[in-house]
Amino acid sequence: MEISIAHLGPAGTYAESAALAYAKWLQTATGQISTLYPYASIAQAIRATADGKAQIAVVPVENSIEGSVTVTLDTLWQLDHLHIQQALTLPIAHALLSMATAIDAIEVVYSHPQALAQCQMWLERFLPSVSLVPTNSTTEALQYLRDNPQAGAISSQRAAQLYDLPILAYPINDHPDNCTRFWVLSLKPPENGSQTSLAFSLPANTPGALVKPLQIFAERQINMSRIESRPTKRSLGDYLFFVDLETDLQSAKAQSALAELRTCTETIKILGSYDVLPIGEALPTSSSRPEG
Amino acid sequence: MEISIAHLGPAGTYAESAALAYAKWLQTATGQISTLYPYASIAQAIRATADGKAQIAVVPVENSIEGSVTVTLDTLWQLDHLHIQQALTLPIAHALLSMATAIDAIEVVYSHPQALAQCQMWLERFLPSVSLVPTNSTTEALQYLRDNPQAGAISSQRAAQLYDLPILAYPINDHPDNCTRFWVLSLKPPENGSQTSLAFSLPANTPGALVKPLQIFAERQINMSRIESRPTKRSLGDYLFFVDLETDLQSAKAQSALAELRTCTETIKILGSYDVLPIGEALPTSSSRPEG
Prior knowledge:
Radius of gyration of chain A: 21 Å
Number of helices of chain A: 8
Order of helices and strands of chain A: EHEHEEHEEEHHEEHEEEHEEHE
CATH architecture of the largest domain in chain A: 3-Layer(aba) Sandwich
Structural class of chain A: alpha/beta
Oligomer: homodimer
Number of strands of chain A: 15
């Protein structure tokens, strides 16, 4: 049976690259063939999976430069049945695409705001006077190039190949270690991997309420590799916390931590217990879309 | 002497409303007259103040729905001499502006991505099939309205007045309690207010390293009203932490906490010790730009 994978589209986005890398891993590991389904937004890709329209969503959760992808965290908190099955990390290398014959001819650069931010120093150095125009995805930026040789777009090498557009500069991201972590989501209940992710809210107006959960982990030698606060959207100053723990879910220490956590949190959700896939280093830059 | 205030422009942005509210407070409290200087980005407004081109920057730091304004945190971490002098909170109420005669005629809606996100449910309900196009600010979205009666823009009531554009719907934000907290920044060293904000990085690869700083606050009954993690941009999984503490800086408990913090953090910065101004409830919606 074919596996349907939802992701932020259209073809050529980094989210598609992550979905392709996952599909390739899935085929090698299990023999299963996947079909990719691009969605107009990350929230739509996640919701399609929650509604059973796709079996899997591959969505970005964190970039090494820009930080959390907050829409992923917020959408996952709202939905009760989706869980993280795996994680993978993809290197991000941006290219400047344009029909211009030289960089100097470019007067406007289109891209997703995160990509523009990640190339800010390069742009200030080589294109100090261009206008920067945000788009909904790195791929959407490409539509402006064909009819305007003074336009540039920041996108991936793969997008340049897919849409047959020239690359004027590569890589142009300010930090060479730019990478994005993705989560693989599905309706399957949490199993037992090397990482466990939780989200919780705390009783309102309780000074120091966050110390207790962190102590629960520390006392049990559970390392917290990440903590992210998000607004509950109830009122300013009222937060949810997303934590990644370096522990499997079924261990005695994790189970005892969870039991104690339930006594000092308002709502707690187990987002998943999963392994980090050893893929993403060798990005599929050619058009390796699964045919099945 | 006139005070120069840098903010994200152009006129009509919520950042300008916050700068106006601050200027009004400043005039009432100290008799000082201010002039507002709009900048194309939040980072540019902050840098202009760090470079002495403006005396004060009024910048958003956190929205009750969308969370942290990460560019403010990241830029403040990079600069050593800017400090928070005051904080103020502004209610945010979005309006749908358009030359269309009815909502049904709208085919495309322009706005800043945060404003689009904050009106997502309203848009899905009343304009389910429109295209959503991101812009650099809520005010920038207005330029598309004059020539295109099928275009709408999400902006403030004040922007509608300033640019003489019709409001078709108001308020359209999904959460009525939508508000944004702003910081007032200048080169003045930290003084002593009721709130103290710090930022710190932790020694790399130290499991549980975050527990210690939080314990330091808890042991001294210092309430941490907010914690935000940001990537150090060195590598994925390496974070800075921004904390807001409900304590003045000069108290014995704050000084003792700081001394102990220095022993368990890598770098620590005191961002400011400041009071929260009792303004922002009555937003200046008319064109009350200070003339002086």
